[in-house]
Amino acid sequence: MYKNNYDQSSTGINIECWAYYDTGLSRIWFEDAINKHGDLYYYQFGYEDVKSIRDFIEIDSKASHEELADLANELNEWAYSDEDLRELILDAEPEMIMNRYWYEQLGSTLKLKPEFTLYRTRGYSQGDIETVLYKGDSMSALIHDSIDHLFWDAPVRATVSINEELYEYWDYDLPEYEWKRDEFIEKILSQYKGEKSDYVRKSLEKMLPEELNYE
């Protein structure tokens, strides 16, 4: 969205407004923070750090021969000794954890190493779900929010120009992924040093939308 008051301003105060959800920026942020190898996503570190299942998975020391054999069967591989079965499993590609049976064994036969978390991020439509491996606290709401936003949202991009003085949405303590129009206007007015602040307020309230479009 772009608007200006050039066709109606007789006050000498020229105002321009840009405001939208920036899908281009969201793609840049996603590519900077998220890597993918096979069907598995990685957050904040490259997949080259994880070359096999053994890099982030441990096998329960009490796992039975049958449990190990069942995991190996999903690889279409076979070995006779428990030691060889364990090696087959641990040498598997990292994305093998996305195999439904293997994923179901997490917490029992298979265990995540303490420094890793597998987080399932969900979007806004049925079927919008991805699994992301990261290093960090499994209960971290901050990390989960960051991953969710990267996958499913776009950040706010908003700029107001008043007589060529620029006011950027992201220069203020406002949520990156949530449009706070009224708070943005208040932040602008708290810094605006020109005349006719009432006119500026009314113009911004008229020009800045209550809801943003995606661009």
Structural overview:
With 215 residues, the chain is of the alpha+beta class. The protein folds into 2 domains: 2-22 and 154-207, no CATH class; 27-152, no CATH class. The protein is built from 7 helices and 10 strands. It has helices spanning 23-33, 65-73, 82-90, 100-104, 141-152, 181-191, 197-207; strands at residues 2-4, 15-21, 34-37, 40-43, 57-59, 110-112, 116-122, 129-135, 156-162, 165-168. The strands form 3 sheets. Strands 1-2-9-10 form a 4-stranded antiparallel sheet, with helices on one face. It has a 4-stranded mixed sheet with strand order 3-4-8-7. A hairpin with a 6-residue loop joins strand 7 and strand 8. The longest helix has 12 residues, at 141-152. The termini are close together.
As a percent range, the share of strand residues is 15-25%
Q: Which percent range fits the helix content?
A: 25-40%
Intertermini distance = 9 Å
If helices are DSSP runs of H or I spanning 4 or more residues, what is the number of helices?
Answer: 7
Radius of gyration over C-alpha positions, nearest whole angstrom: 26 Å
Layout of strands and helices, then pairs:
Blueprint: E1 2-4, E2 15-21, H1 23-33, E3 34-37, E4 40-43, E5 57-59, H2 65-73, H3 82-90, H4 100-104, E6 110-112, E7 116-122, E8 129-135, H5 141-152, E9 156-162, E10 165-168, H6 181-191, H7 197-207
Parallel strand pairs: 4-8
Antiparallel strand pairs: 1-2, 2-9, 3-4, 5-6, 7-8, 9-10
